[in-house]
Design brief:
By secondary structure, this protein is an alpha+beta fold. The protein has two domains: 45 residues, Uridine Diphospho-n-acetylenolpyruvylglucosamine Reductase, domain 2 (2-Layer Sandwich), CATH 3.30.43.10; 207 residues, Uridine Diphospho-n-acetylenolpyruvylglucosamine Reductase, domain 3 (2-Layer Sandwich), CATH 3.30.465. It is built from twelve helices and twelve strands. It has a five-stranded antiparallel beta sheet with strand order 4-5-8-6-7. It has a four-stranded antiparallel beta sheet with strand order 9-10-11-12, sandwiched between helices. A hairpin with a 6-residue loop joins strand 9 and strand 10. The protein starts with a strand and ends with a helix. 43% of the residues are buried. Keywords: FAD, Flavoprotein, Oxidoreductase.
């Protein structure tokens, strides 16, 4: 690793000030950043550890929504009573991320800010119509994710939490890549007050909604309706792990299973 300085601020305000320095990187769970530094793919001059900021952790109710602090660990989301009661699909998703070590260290804010094209949380945000809360503004999930490892965050902007509206029915199913446990394909389906939303992760350059599946499930929220929708392989990526055609088939299969799970 390269030489760097380390800061551990106690407040969001202090973290924002430090993040404004050129060459500084915010450190959440460190599951991606530290690995990149070890491989010499990242060379921050300063690390700003957010782990000491108590106000960035925890889950609270806000009307019909749940607000989850950016530094809340995956393991905490998976076991939190309010999340399990109001959004069991989100708790289930968090409990299936990586392994125990990753879930004990990784954070929802870190995952969302990193926007790995195969990460699980972005699918939940997009399907549930969540809102990303920063120190400057609120950003709808539809506007937040902008492609591979790219988001709407500005330089020095810090995620403080994510607000999730509750859903009538929701479920997440993923086909794991065996080595990384990221989603080879993951599908989050949600039946909400505003309609049905279907978000796919692992299929391309970033998480995306599938309009064809949404339209079909809005008419009939059944596995059979999902099975009738053709998923175009041309919209999928192809690599050493799976072909585009294989991923397209997985989107269909995972959606059918997610709908069946949501229906109980």
């Amino acid at each position: 690793m390269y030489a760097f300085t380390f800061e551990r601020p106690a407040s969001t305000a202090d973290a924002v000030k430090l993040a404004g320095n050129g060459g500084a990187k915010l450190l959440a769970g460190g599951q991606t950043l530290l690995a990149s530094m070890k491989l010499r793919l990242a060379n921050p001059e300063q690390l700003v550890d957010l782990g000491g900021i108590a106000e960035l952790s925890g889950v609270r109710k806000d009307g019909n929504a749940l607000v989850i602090g950016a530094m809340t660990r995956h393991a905490e989301v998976a076991t939190n009573a309010d999340v399990k009661s109001a959004l069991p699909a989100l708790a289930d998703l968090a409990g299936g991320i990586g392994d125990r070590q990753v879930r004990a260290m990784g954070t929802i804010g870190g995952s969302v800010a990193n926007n790995d094209p195969s990460a699980c949380y972005p699918a939940a945000l997009l399907a549930l119509g969540a809102t990303v809360i920063t120190n400057q503004r609120k950003i709808a999930a539809d506007d937040f994710f902008q492609g591979m490892f790219t988001t709407a965050l500005k330089d020095g902007e810090l995620i403080t939490g994510v607000s999730f509206p509750t859903a009538k029915k929701a479920a997440y199913i993923k086909f794991k890549q065996p080595a990384s446990r990221f989603a080879l394909i993951g599908v989050f389906v949600a039946q909400t007050d505003s309609g049905v939303r279907v978000a796919v992760t692992g299929g391309g350059n970033g998480v995306f909604r599938h309009k064809g599946l949404e339209d079909a499930l809005a008419k009939s929220f059944t596995p059979e309706a999902a099975a009738a929708v053709k998923v175009d392989p041309a919209t999928m990526s192809s690599d050493l792990h799976a072909s585009a055609a294989y991923r397209a088939n997985l989107v269909s299969v995972m959606t059918q299973r997610a709908v069946a799970k949501a229906l109980g």
